[in-house]
UniProtKB/TrEMBL annotation:
This is DUF1700 domain-containing protein. The chain crosses the membrane at residues 82-103, 141-161. It comes from Paenibacillus nasutitermitis. Keywords: Membrane, Transmembrane, Transmembrane helix. The keyword Membrane applies. It holds the Pfam family HAAS.
Amino acid sequence: MIREQYLRQLWELLTPIPERLRRDLMFDYEEHFRQAAEHGKSEEEAAHELGDPRMIAKEMLLGYRVEQAEIRNGGITHVSRAVFAAVSLGFFNLVFVLGPFIGLLGILLALWATSIAVGLSSLAAIYEGVFGDAWSSTQGIFVAIALLAVGMLLGALSHWLTRAVSRVTLKYLKFNFRMMRVKKQ
C-alpha cells in the first residue's frame, strides 16, 4: 500500500512533465520498489530510502524546466519557469536566485520600454516638424530619423542583454542543479 501511495503521489506531482517522459522517470522508482522487495525490504524501508516524493518531484521538475529552457535556446519564458522551479527547492534559491532574477527582469523591462518610447517619439518629432513651431519639417524628419535610430539601437541592446541574462541564468541553474545532485549523493 505504501508503494502505491508513494508512486501515485510522485506521479501527480510530476503533472507539468509530459506523460511519456513522466512514465520514463517513474520507471526507476517502480524498479526501486521491485528490487527492495526482492532483497526482503519492506515498502516502508524502500520509500524511506528514496526520500520525500515532494522533494524528488521538485528536483525532477527543475531538471525538466532547465532542459526545456536549453532546448528553446534560453527563451526568457522558459528560463523564468526554471527559476521558479529552483525557488521551490529552498530558501537559498529564493534569496540568491529569485531576487536577482526579478531585479534583472525589471532592468530589462525598463530598457525595452525606453527603446520603444524613444522609437515612438520619432512620430512626435515629425508632428512637431510639420505642425509645430519648434523646427522646420526637414529638421523634424532628421530628428525623427535620429530618434528612430537610437530606439532601434536600444532595442538591439535590449535583445542582446535579454539573451545574455537568459544564458547566464540558465548556466547558474544547471550548476545549482548539479550541486544539489552531488550534495544529495
